[in-house]
Write a structure and sequence with these properties.
This protein has 260 residues and is an alpha/beta fold. The chain has one domain: Rossmann fold (3-Layer(aba) Sandwich), CATH 3.40.50. The protein is 48% helix and 13% strand. It contains 8 helices and 7 strands; from the N terminus they run βαβαβαβαβαβαααβ. A 7-stranded parallel beta sheet has the order 3-2-1-4-5-6-7, sandwiched between helices. Helix 5 links the parallel strand 5 and strand 6. The protein starts with 5 loop residues before the first strand and ends in a 7-residue tail after the last strand. The model has no long low-confidence stretch (mean pLDDT 97). It binds nicotinamide-adenine-dinucleotide. Nicotinamide-adenine-dinucleotide (NAD) binds next to helix 1, helix 4 and helix 6. GO terms for molecular function: 3-hydroxybutyrate dehydrogenase activity. Belongs to the short-chain dehydrogenases/reductases (SDR) family. It comes from Methylobacterium nodulans (strain LMG 21967 / CNCM I-2342 / ORS 2060). This is 3-hydroxybutyrate dehydrogenase.
Length: 260
């Protein structure tokens, strides 16, 4: 179990990150939540983790597009809990547009949040993990780290980048008992997926039902959305001793999407 260990989960005020944070807390880890949202909603989730799982949970409002704030989040966690044993780089955003109309600022923001933030957080957390001789780094990639879809240029580029960064870090840290893996979900029903439906309707000229059935679930042979708890279960497993020889892997949970 992760009792007396500490996990920092970026983008954990919602969706997959929140499920991963709760899964790691259930396994005994103290948690640093991160992400945006209404202060009262975040406080409710933080307090619920402490009450339900008997661990300590803190919140960092660090913006994953700001390298200084990312380093500050890791330093704060180390000061508060003594170490960062598990780092989950999960924060991510989406934007759907043809390349020639893709706003330059959106490209930069997606590369910063979905890719560079993982580099900055790893850079800050690895020295502590090396000192203690144990660590787990888990990056939330995507089926879009393996295959592409049109109109998601920045997202697909960032996620392919995360897959490469994961492999590189795994090799660098292989003899330090620090594993580095990514999880690649297909479509998971979260606010991120729900909120891209209007833009996909516009970009492809489709109704909401057509986007759900003909675009989203069309890619997924099981015709079912992945659940956030199914993603969280993989993260918990990757932190276990049973997974100590799994490193540099890209683990798909996509209903068969990337088998096609
Ligand atoms: P979500 O929108 O529910 O959650 C995203 C989280 O990131 C939120 O907590 C949000 O506050 C946080 N966030 C956004 N910008 C941030 C910033 N600048 N700094 C700090 N936090 C920030 O989305 P989700 O679906 O749970 O996505 C989580 C991860 O899973 C993302 O990396 C996403 O690309 C990936 N993913 C999602 C799906 C899916 O179908 N939902 C599929 C594959 C991969």
């Amino acid at each position: 179990t992760l009792t007396s260990k500490t996990a920092v989960v970026t983008g954990s005020t919602s969706g997959i990150g929140l499920a991963i944070a709760r899964g790691l807390a259930k396994d005994g880890a103290n948690i640093v939540l991160n992400g945006f949202g209404q202060p009262e909603d975040i406080e409710r989730e933080r307090a619920a983790i402490e009450a339900e799982f008997g661990v300590k949970a803190r919140y960092s409002g660090a913006d994953m597009s700001k390298p200084d704030e990312i380093a500050g989040m890791i330093a704060e966690a180390e000061t508060a809990f003594g170490a960062v044993d598990v780092l989950v780089n999960n924060a991510g955003i989406q934007f759907v547009s043809p390349i020639e109309e893709f706003p330059v600022g959106k490209w930069d923001q997606i590369i910063a949040i979905n890719l560079s933030s993982a580099f900055h957080a790893m850079r800050a957390a690895i020295p502590g993990m090396k000192r203690q001789g144990w660590g787990r780094i888990i990056n939330t990639a995507s089926a879009h780290s393996l295959v592409a879809s049109p109109f998601k240029a920045a997202y697909v580029a960032a996620k392919h980048g995360i897959a490469g960064l994961t492999k590189t870090a795994a090799l660098e840290l292989a003899t330090h008992k620090i594993t580095v893996n990514c999880i690649s979900p297909g479509y998971v029903w979260t606010p991120l997926v729900e909120s891209q439906i209007p833009d996909t309707m516009k970009a492809r000229g489709l109704t909401k039902e057509q986007v759900i059935n003909d675009v989203l679930l069309q890619a997924q042979p099981t015709k079912e959305f992945v659940t956030v708890d199914q993603v969280a279960a993989i993260a918990v497993f990757l932190c276990s001793d049973a997974a100590s020889q799994i490193t540099g892997a890209n683990i798909s949970v996509d209903g068969g999407w990337t088998a096609q």
